């Protein structure tokens, strides 16, 4: 059971994990031992509440396929067990982050002093540029 919150958890039979060989350099161990974990979680077929499913499917995350399957590949560690724990933790974080609603941004106005400083710097800059022009002799 993967616990998402106090009320929501995912049964182990809904999470499909398979061991695959890791990518990249690493010598003989990489070539013969399948330590990376390939995790697949089908959102529409899961037992998650509907609001969780809707929020996850509406996200534009590269780990979520068009069919609504979350695919996570964990290969950071040298042991299969650590990679399995890492993959489950990343799935848990992804689902938790999808459910939390970000607080709305309140637009702020610039202060009077910041407006004055901006206009002063523009005036100074325009004077510098105007002095760069051709010198007209009378």
What do these coordinates show?
With 138 residues, the chain is α+β, with helices and mostly antiparallel strands. The chain has a single domain, classed as Double Stranded RNA Binding Domain (2-Layer Sandwich). Helix content is 39%, strand content 17%. It contains 4 helices and 5 strands. A 3-stranded antiparallel sheet has the order 3-4-5, covered by helices on one side. Strand 1 and strand 2 form a beta hairpin. Helix 2 (50-58) crosses helix 3. The relative contact order is 0.14. The model has no long low-confidence stretch (mean pLDDT 87).
Largest sheet: 3 strands, antiparallel
Gyration radius (Cα, Å) is 27 Å
Can you list the strand order of the major beta sheet?
A: 3-4-5
How many angstroms does the end-to-end distance come to?
89 Å
Structure summary:
With 138 residues, the chain is an alpha+beta fold. Helices cover 39% and strands 17% of the residues. It has one domain (2-99): Double Stranded RNA Binding Domain, CATH 3.30.160.
